[in-house]
Amino acid sequence: xxxxxxxxxxxxxxxxxxxxxxxxxxxxxxxxxxxxxxxxxxxxxxxxxxxxxxxxxxxxxxxxxxxxxxxxxxxxxxxxxxxxxxxxxxxxxxxxxxxxxxxxxxxxxxxxxxxxxxxxxxxxxxxxxxxxxxxxxxxxxxxxxxxxxxxxxxxxxxxxxxxxxxxxxxxxxxxxxxxxxxxxx
Amino acid sequence: xxxxxxxxxxxxxxxxxxxxxxxxxxxxxxxxxxxxxxxxxxxxxxxxxxxxxxxxxxxxxxxxxxxxxxxxxxxxxxxxxxxxxxxxxxxxxxxxxxxxxxxxxxxxxxxxxxxxxxxxxxxxxxxxxxxx
Lengths: 185, 132
Known about the structure:
A: 185 residues; mainly alpha; Rna Polymerase Sigma Factor, Chain: A; 2 domains; 74% helix; B: 132 residues; alpha/beta; Rossmann fold; five-stranded parallel beta sheet; 4 helices; 5 strands; 20% strand
């Protein structure tokens, strides 16, 4: 596949292509799409660029080696960030604590962080969250953005989508659960 | 003492092909690669990030085109000076105790200042060891 074609491919196609044929250009395209965000994420966790650089490059090499273990290609971004997170923790380079945040916490962290460590953790989590939300179906992404970013109430969403309250809640719940599944993969 | 390849670069330029060639030489000669650049005196955080992002871009190109996404044993040193590139490089080389054996010289005109030309001559590197 030519590079210009790869730019237009979905991440699922790129992952499957690399899994099946070890086509370096497909993995290179995945790298080009995510290295910048991953570097920012690692920098937030480690607190310095040198470690973030090394962890970013090591993460992609590890991901290329283990790619066949990824059964859901659409989860590649969260899987990649999870690898980076684990390398940060295992190498002892992480400045922030290894703490699991429940999904409800993930959606509420914006207002609750206290102190530098928590702020850094918050930003790293938001970085990851943004990436996960971006990989959702556009309609699911839209409703989450309206609810949690634009702070719209269920009543407002009811009007906007012309749906009942329970239908809105159900949609929100489904979208949140999808993000949760990706985050824990 | 390990061989050293000096790789000066401006992060705003396209250094991909030269990077690949430099790493191939480093592999064959078991050399350390010094990735050297200089940024403005009053550089903000973003400019430092841009240097690292540029090096990550080069790494991606190298892995995709040359190294099949494998680990390699090449040792790197990343050095970011401040101010004028020529002066910054001169200052770094004067302080460095490990002599540079090879220079991967950028072809872009911005790099061919008289100071740098003199600096390269001073390193006494034979012309065949300067990679253009």
